[in-house]
Amino acid sequence: MPGWLRLCLCALILCASGGVSAAPGAVVQLQVDGVIGPASADYLVRGLAKAVDEGAQLVVIEIDTPGGLDTAMRAIIKAILASPIPVASYVAPGGARAASAGTYILYASHVAAMTPGTNLGAATPVAIGMPGAPSQPEGDDKAEKDKATQGDKGTGDAMTAKQVNDAAAYIRGLANMRGRNAEWAEQAVREAVSLSAEEALEQKVIDYLARDTADLLRQLDGKTLQAAGVERTLATAGAPLISHAPDWRTRLLAVITNPSVALILMMIGVYGLFFEFSNPGSGVGGVLGGISLVLALYALQLLPVNYAGVALILLGIAFITAEAFLPSFGVLGIGGVVAFVFGGLILIDTDVPGFGIPLALIITLALVSAALILAIVGMALRARRRQQVAGDSGLVGSLVAIAAVREDDPRAGWVALQGERWQVQGAAPLQPGQQVRVTAREGVHLQVSAVDEPPPRGGN
Hints:
Layout: H1 3-16, E1 27-33, H2 38-54, E2 58-64, H3 70-82, E3 87-91, E4 97-99, H4 101-108, E5 111-114, E6 119-121, H5 142-149, H6 158-178, H7 182-191, E7 194-196, H8 197-202, E8 208-209, H9 213-220, E9 224-227, E10 230-233, E11 241-243, H10 248-256, H11 259-278, H12 284-302, H13 307-322, H14 331-345, H15 359-385, H16 391-395, E12 399-401, E13 404-405, E14 412-417, E15 420-426, E16 435-442, E17 445-450
Parallel strand pairs: 1-2, 1-11, 2-3, 3-5, 4-6, 5-8, 15-17
Antiparallel strand pairs: 6-7, 9-10, 12-16, 13-14, 14-15, 16-17
Helix pairs in contact: 2-3, 2-10, 3-4, 6-7, 11-12, 13-14, 14-15
């Protein structure tokens, strides 16, 4: 086999495998930077599975997150709890945080570590459908605080209380499993408190304080941890550290699961299919619209979607489209814009930071849709006012020159009109080159009348 062909095959195999693989006994490093959503959950779950397949002895998850979706967080925690190799969650670099969902992941991990200058906490769930997180009650009376945080029906919402209680029980269970401070964990949920790295170590919320990943691995060397019921002794001093960056699938998923991008894809999909059905033949609108709509639907099924918002958006598009065909004098168009705006506002059913759709984008898309439909209406009105150039209406009234005259009948001849040869009949004799006007059509014959005098035959 030629050398160049072997190199190409090796490159293809390397790309298919997703890059460099960890050697047995290596430490695999994964990174969570930003809001935890479907893309980060997919990345971490697949990264943990890949580390197991490669025979790594430890996975270090470097965390810097303001929180994220509850479904994504629980998928990550399930993967950590089921992992047969230990997982160390490490809040880094300096200035990073493990807020909200990050705190739960930290508590679920076999090892919890932070670097100086970081913080964790504020784990109160931002509930789906709620206008905001439950506020901390004022005053110093502990009984009043407990009553408020437990969702007393006179001061709070029953659904809020259920979600807060569920989250508190969840993180307390994780704390008991890992032998960490369960009281502070519940306080982080009910009162949204936070801790610095030094305070977290002092209160036994985390296990280690490390300057960097290398320092953490030195501290973990020789430690025995239990993962999936099996005790494992780490030998991390000098172990190779392999970092698995997000691959193309994770990056693509991160883009399309952005609610703003998902809304734009849905608009492109709907209008692409609309134009394809209105003007079939080119196929561009159908292909682009179909792909965009499928991607949008895939993204929306991964996100906490309010289906009333989806219905309002589709209803708004239908109203705006109907404005182009029905004489509603703008009523349907204005109603469609209003329905679209309200649908976009309530489309994503969560207040988690990073998962909202900007109002400016919603209004822009609504106005673009309205402008597009108005442009279509304008073109249709201009086309209606334009003189018809096809059929009988395009023939009658046309000026044309006589091409030839029949010898047996000087009132009959032929003309070339609209790319065709027509027989013509006049009330008076016709001459070749004479300008005539078409007055009527009778089958395959045209009736004409002269508009000027016959040209002279020659001479003076």
